[in-house]
Amino acid sequence: MSAQAGPSKKRPVIVEEDATKLQFGEFADGEALTVMEVQLLLAATRNAPGAPKAPDNKVYKLTSEYVSEFSNAASDVVDSMRTALMAHTQFLNKFEVAQILYLRPESVEVAVALIPSLDRHMGQDDTTETLSQILEDVRGIARYGGRP
Fold this sequence. Notes:
By secondary structure, this protein is an all-alpha fold. Helix content is 51%, strand content 3%. It is flat, with a radius of gyration of 21 Å.
């Protein structure tokens, strides 16, 4: 009796997810949103003409409460900050953009502590200075509500 091997099954490749290395697996092509932007999207979908009534479930209610509680800027300020940061897409990943928008770190050191992937900019004077200027611009927009 000979044992006949069945068709070989290939195991799916599992992509490692690690935000500190900017590896997001299946979400790599997705958009990174801030809490403020999620709040705007929820409001826009509720207020759209012909939109269905908001779901009556615990997850939706808790999400709405969370974004209302932790949203920390008006929509025009968020738009201004994102526009300013999108000028640096060769320098920042979209995940880093969303984190900087929400956290608004006070210094490069704090930014790297909160967003470890930014560590790649440390130790190089020109990139550290660029990151410092980006953080200052974002804080200025948040503080004064417009372009720095």
